[in-house]
Amino acid sequence: MSPAVTVTVTMLVLAAAGLLPVLLLVGPRLVALPLFPLAGAALCGAAAACSIALSWSLLQWFVLLSGAAFLLSLGVFIRRPERARRLLLGLRRGVRPLVALGGVVVLAAVAWTLRPLRVPSVGFDSRAIWILHARWLRQGHTFELAAIRNHFLVLSHPGYPPLVSAVMALAWRVSGTSSDRVAVATVAVLNGCALLVAGWGIVEAARRAALRLHPGAGPSRLVTRPRLLLGVGIVLAALAVLVAGGVVGTFATNGYADPLWSLAAVSIVVFGLVL
Amino acid sequence: MHDPGGGALMGSPPPPPPPSPPARVVLGALAVLLFAVIALGLGALHSNHLETRLTTAAATASAQRSDRYYDCLSAQAHTLITPSDVVYLPDPTLAAWTTLTKVVGGWAHVTLQLHQANLALTLQRSTHPGSCDGNDLVTVGHAPGGHIVIRSGS
Question: How many A-B residue pairs are in contact by the CB < 8 A criterion?
């Protein structure tokens, strides 16, 4: 299986795991699309923590936790049918053309920032920390626990969160390999999803501001046109994504976990505190 | 109870739209927006330049060389160490320690206690044609007869 196919299949597996919980929490919005694999990655990280702390393998816990999250979300939809109706109504209504265009523009900007993925670069910390931890996770509970307790391996920071390494290990399970390239590319695509969510915060802010607008007169009519405001939001979001791509630089595509955490923090602040 | 549609049902007129912002506020907002677009545009151009540098032939060659180095050391390690071995890494330098951890730390049983190990693993400089960019993995262990066995990965 080629790295591109492996990464695609891994993303689909993660997205399937995160699908229903995200639809329950976020609803039928465009931003839910990149959140599907990110939520699946969070479940995968939780599965890794359970595998290390308790027993079983990462894959067993991932299937168990994904199934539990699916059933829990389904249970909420069944107990509260108005939520399910709202979801179906939103899905039937679809996306407005300008919002869809915004999605395509921001997605294109994110794809452009991932160009360095063509270079098979594996970062220092990626090898020394994240890929190393992924190899522990691939070997099951006994090896993971022994590695974490091994004083020799203390320089690899065994206490770091297992999310990124867990996703790498899952990608290896999917592909049946243990290629560094697959691990790095999978994390790079997750970084892209996080960048997409963070960038979409600007479009969402513009969309919500446009909904509150009333047509004005005089000079104010320039800034009180909802479509114009949304268009400006899309342009600003695309530019901000391109700038963020330069700031993150090589760390977006060489297997580092830092961009994922920092972009997730930006998204949480934007969607949780600002919007 | 509050009823948002109650006024319309009672026939009262809809609430008037909020007043438009003053012209100076609108112009100020437009100036800030223009500044943001220009600053972000310049930033995006700079970022694009930086990312283009990451995809040059030199960057690709450097990444491929690094990948080959670790792939080569990993292949050597798999010929020298079996999953049942307990490996002691005596190398005192931080650089060699980090390199060896990257190569075997994910799958081999490594220890800081010499008495628990049956193999010692070191990274040695080498001029051998099959070496990994001038380095070879070397193990030191005991043969069944008590003799010391030194094996090189290349």
Answer: 125
- How is residue B89 written in tokens? 């890494």
Contact list in A for residue B105 (CB cut-off 8 A) is 132, 135, 147, 152-153, 156
Cβ contacts of A136 on chain B, cutoff 8 Å: 106
Residue among B24, B88, B102 with most chain A CBs within 10 A, to mutate = B102
CB A196 within 8 A of CB A202: no
Q: Name the DSSP class of A114.
A: T
The chain A residue lying nearest B36, using CA atoms, is A236
Q: What is the ipTM of this complex?
A: 0.83
Q: Does A102 score more than 80 pLDDT?
A: yes
Nearest residue of B to residue A119, measured between CA atoms: B60
Residues 6 or more apart whose CB falls under 8 angstroms from that of A32 comprise: A22, A23, A26
Query: Taking CA atoms, what residue in B is nearest to A220?
Result: B26
A72: distance to nearest CA of chain B, Å?
Answer: 34
A211–chain B Cβ distance below 8 A for any pair: no
For residues A17 and B9, which has the higher predicted lDDT (pLDDT)?
A: A17
Q: Which of A148, A154, A125, A120 is nearest to A3 (CA)?
A: A120
Range B27-64 burial, b when 16+ CB lie within 10 A, else e: eeeeeeeeeeeeebeebbeebbeebeebeeeebbeebe
Cβ–Cβ below 8 Å for A155 and B98: yes
Task: Write down the pLDDT at residue A51.
Answer: 96
Residue-wise pLDDT tens digits, B130-139: 899 999 999 9
Would you state the pLDDT for residue B15? 67
Average pLDDT over residues A132-136: 95
On the question of pLDDT at B8 being above 60, the answer is no
Mean pLDDT of B74-88: 92
Instruction: State pLDDT tens for residues A145-191.
Output: 999 998 888 888 999 999 999 999 999 998 888 899 999 999 999 99
pTM, two decimals, is 0.88
Closest CA to A38 of A261, A271, A270, A275: A261
Contact B48, A109 (CB under 8 A): no
